[in-house]
UniProtKB/TrEMBL annotation:
All copies of domain START-like, residue ranges: 1-125
Protein name, per record: START-like domain-containing protein
InterPro entries: START-like_dom_sf, START_2
Pfam families registered for this protein in UniProt: START_2 (PF19569)
Top-rank taxon: Bacteria
Length: 126
């Protein structure tokens, strides 16, 4: 079994951390840009893309700052995480995404996040 590599991505998002957090942590917010549909039961989030679904548990969250989802059906401890930071000097809000991918899928995964975040920016009008 190949080990997954950690991917860290950063995007500047022109909106308040509060508005961004809502898009990262709620079913309705995630449906707008991340998945075709999202169902939530307690801390379990089921993400649906093109008819297939994957379930993750929200294992970490800090209001307007951080959301982490850990995949239920993965044998490793892989997760994906959204972290919101604001630059003290410029006031720029950044979205830091941490994800994991097989070594031969890193570029593909980066490309996928780029297009997902483009959709997010479109929804936010930024």
């Amino acid at each position: 079994m190949t080990s997954k590599v950690k991917i860290n991505l950063e995007y500047i998002i022109n909106c308040s951390p509060k508005v961004l957090y809502n898009r990262l942590s709620t079913a309705s917010g995630l449906t707008e840009w991340f998945a075709d549909d999202v169902r939530v039961r307690g801390k379990r989030y089921t993400f649906i893309w093109d008819g297939s679904e994957q379930t993750a548990e929200m294992t970490l969250h800090k209001e307007n700052r951080l959301v982490r989802f850990s995949w239920i059906d993965e044998e490793d401890d892989s997760y994906f995480e959204f972290k919101i930071t604001r630059d003290e000097l410029t006031g720029d809000v950044s979205l830091l995404i941490t994800d994991f991918a097989e070594e031969d899928e890193v570029e593909e995964t980066r490309g996928l996040w780029d297009s997902q975040v483009d959709a997010l920016k479109h929804v936010l009008g930024s």
